[in-house]
Amino acid sequence: MRLNAFRSPRNIARNVSGITAGITLSLLYVATAAAASPSAAVPDAAASDPARLGWMVGSPPPPDRTLRFEDGSYFQFPAMRWSVSHFRQLMPTVNISRGLGAPVALPRQDSVALNQRIDALRFVPLGAAEPMTWEQSLAANYTDGIVVLHRGRVVYERYFGSLQQDGQHAAMSVTKSVIGTLGATLVAEGKIDAGKRVADYVPELASSAFGSATVRQVLDMTTGLKYSEDYADPNAEVWQHAQAGSPLPKPKDYTGPRSYFEFLQTVQPQGQHGDGFAYKTVNTDVLGWIIARATGRNVAELLSERIWRRLGAEQDAYMTVDSIGTPFAGGGLNTGLRDLARFGEMLRNDGRFNGQQIIPQAAVADIRGGGDKAAFAKAGYGLLPGWSYRDMWWVSHNPHGAYSARGVHGQRIYVDPKAEMVIVRYASHPVAGNAANDPTTIPAFDALAQFLMSLSR
Active-site residue among 173, 208, 388, 428? Predict the structure, then answer.
């Protein structure tokens, strides 16, 4: 079935296998946005618990509990609550080695009493009249795992569903911020010139929309592209991106791009570069290509070499790939929960961790400083007034100087410099867009910051 045969979000969810079975991580957004909307009746966190539902248990699992990548069943809610912790079982990936050294333990200061006090914290969700507790917010956001660091110590850590302490979870678009950090690092080191055109680094993109954009415009997503991420529109370019990046075989009559590299060369201009912020995943794929050209390493190799091996990570991470093994820079990262917390803590400490300067302080300062607020405002994020976007990070400009990495279905890294706090959350919310969980997430994180600061007084 061809893309233009779809006529509604319901049909998109029903016929997701018809796109040559071409679901990739790009299409994770599509499948979920189509399958569940804010008004859809879906089971709550307890009823959709993947451990309770028994997905992929047995040798073999029963037919009604078997999930497959090729037909899209793995990402239909509530099955996706199992899949986000098991992507490596279902699709091709590339490893991000932590190296051979001993992991660096995170100091702990958690206790039953402290956990109970945090669970009992109360806040009022955005747009609501009645308060809820921190513990209630975890279920409301379909949390799979959450860890909180205060002054570098673990003060809170919980796991739910299929995610275990030694497991890995999909970071979704949090990947963009990790890759953006690599980009900011190379800019700070002078290995990439943010003022140069993309075509200066990747001549193959000269005739595409990206060719005339600067690296800075790519980093801050102010490129003018004819590229829609309207997942309910079957003709949106995000579908073509997903089909090109799928590692599965294409139909015999398929003549389109067969890799991320090939697809990026087809993106056409629309509007003017620099006019406004527009969140488009392909910018991060282009950044990944620029990084590979500038360093001779793909983003998975560079992430291992420059960061993961130096963090004292507990586990290898991994990234999903296309049919020629290209890591999906826009959303393919999978990590352990605490390792992503180490990454966030490194940023909170101006790039230092494990007794060494891992990334330049100037790179962290550039991220924290934020981007163009007026450009960001044009994108119309009603729940994020006064925010900006810089180096693929979401910068709040609140009194604490907090900034975030954000991924669909509730993934987060949240760094609050004033509160000396880092929160990392993995989740499997049935609604892809963060507008569904921001009303509880933003005030919950603010409440915890205020609580932790009160402990320090």
Answer: 173
